[in-house]
Design a protein that fits this description.
Strand content: 15-25%
Largest sheet: 4 strands, antiparallel
Number of helices: 4
Structural class: alpha+beta
Order of helices and strands: EHEEHHEH
Radius of gyration: 16 Å
Shape: globular
Number of strands: 4
């Protein structure tokens, strides 16, 4: 498999049930409802699903994140909407290839800013 041929794309409406079922079946935390600011992605190679990724709004409180960013209380609530959280990441069974996870995350990192702004109206 050539990793450069992998495509990461948003899950379309008719695929949402499959996406949720696969997460429920194969991810140790199961699926998440699509509430609020959430984007679901599928990584494919030649139309074969390889991995799933769910990105959503961040938790209100996360001590490690808040210390690392060094926001004061006021700025935290004013800017929290500028963070996207990797909520679920799954390489599907039988699809484990060297560097596949890194490739999928890299593709997401490249397309997420544009998708997020297009869908939710802010970076």
């Amino acid at each position: 498999m050539n990793l450069r041929e992998i495509i990461l794309r948003p899950v379309i409406t008719c695929e949402e049930a499959r996406f949720q079922t696969l997460l429920d079946t194969h991810h140790y935390l199961g699926s998440l409802p699509k509430i609020g600011h959430t984007l679901w992605y599928v990584a494919t190679w030649q139309d074969r699903w390889l991995g799933l990724l769910s990105v959503g709004a961040p938790a209100w409180k996360c001590a490690a994140r808040d210390r690392w960013i060094a926001w004061d209380f006021r700025r935290q609530y004013d800017r929290l909407h500028l963070i996207a959280n990797n909520a679920r990441f799954l390489i599907l069974p039988g699809q484990h290839y060297p560097n596949l996870g890194s490739r999928i995350l890299s593709l997401c990192e490249r397309r997420l800013p544009q998708d997020w702004t297009g869908r939710f109206g802010h970076p």
